Amino acid sequence: MQKRYLVGMMKSLVALLAVASFMGTGTAWGAARDYPAKPVTLIVPFAAGGGTDIGTRIATKAAEKFLGRPFVIQNVDGGGSEVGVSQMVRSRPDGYTLAGFNSASVILTTMRKASYHPVSDVAPICLVVSDPRLFVVRADDKRFNTTAEYIKYAKDNPEKLTIGTSGAGTSGHLALLFLNKAAAIKAKHVGFGGAGESKAAFLGGHIDSVTQTYGEVKGMLKDGKVKIIAAATDERMKELPNVPTFKEAGIDLVINSNRGFAAPKATPKEVIAKLADAFKKAAADPEYIQQMEKMGLPMKYLGPEEFGKLIKREYEEYTEVVKELGIKK
Fold first, then answer.
1. Which residues contact 111 (CB under 8 A, 6 or more apart)?
2. CA 215 to CA 50: how far, in whole Å?
3. Which residues in 157-251 belong to E strands, given as ranges?
4. What pLDDT is attached to residue 114?
């Protein structure tokens, strides 16, 4: 009698667990089906005014037409994007808190102990921009007119050539480290809280040079405030046909700043798909294309799977490079 009672209890428990599991799955599925039911917060992990911030605002404005809800932008800078990305990673995985996720967000994890892992803690949504690195000086700085003069000055004056970036662990910082190694120089890194801050310090004469992307440099170039020393590209950019590459000077330096969006790892795939689809449709919107070209932001769309592969590849490649350079803290 007691044995039959226990068996009956076990069967009832299994049935209850099955119902609970079904209800939980149904609730999650229902939430994903109805997504989005309210505005979506998107964290820009850099200060306002930089290429990431500007590009994000243009992209989200275009995508919200297809998503059906507005994006609320929050600038949470610090740690070369670590502070903002960490806030996103720790948030509820329901699709209502996203973050910009750049090459910088990957690179910093290869250079020091970080509060998240770029592959295992993040759900990629899409890539929207792939922007090469440029090294620039002020237009009135007569010391530098060519790549050769720039490199010679750095060789003759170790630690004196100051180059600003958006912060430690960013793609700009790594580009500077690559340049030091490839050109056998010792330029001094000066990190800021974002491209806007480094640009202000540079234009104010507090540092000699900055390494930024085309979108970040374009306005200064148009206003005649800067000279571009060289581009860290394989070939000359179509937007800048008169700007030489470092390779032309015998320096093997090629590095891009890839920029996209990501969510917490456990975010439902249906939600990720809806977000990715909205940004994909935005990428074909003529108004969006015109605005991105006007700001000098080279567009490149990759969906969740392909963007995930790019993040993994960057992590593996930069881990090897950082190890080779001996710069991991």
1. 168, 169, 174, 322, 327, 328, 329
2. 9
3. 162-165, 188-191, 209-213, 226-231
4. 94
Lookup result for tokens 């020091």? 112
User: Do the beta carbons of residue 113 and residue 322 sit within 8 Å?
Assistant: no
Could you give the CA distance from residue 134 to residue 256 in angstroms, rounded to a whole number?
A: 10
* Gyration radius from the chain CA atoms: 23
Write down the residue that tokens 């148009």 correspond to.
222
Residue 119 · residue 91 · CB < 8 Å? no
Q: Report the alpha-carbon distance of residue 24 to residue 5 in Å, rounded.
A: 28
Domains 33-130+258-325 and 132-249 share a fold: yes
Residue pair 72/60 in contact by the 8 Å Cβ criterion? no
CA max distance for the chain: 98
Give the torsion sign (CA, 269, 274, 278, 283).
Answer: positive
C-alpha to C-alpha distance for 208 and 162, rounded to whole angstroms: 5
Side chain identity at residue 216, one-letter code: E
- Write the CATH number of the domain with boundaries 33-130+258-325: 3.40.190.150
Predicted pLDDT of residue 30: 57
CATH number of 132-249: 3.40.190.10
Residue pair 119/105 in contact by the 8 Å Cβ criterion = no
Domain spans of the chain? 33-130+258-325, 132-249
Mind giving me the DSSP string for 41-96? EEEESS-TTSHHHHHHHHHHHHHHHHHSS-EEEEE---GGGHHHHHHHHTS-SSSS
In contact, 305 and 123? CB cutoff 8 Å: no
User: pLDDT, tens digit, for every residue of 33-91?
Assistant: 899 999 999 999 998 988 889 999 999 999 999 999 999 999 999 988 999 999 999 99
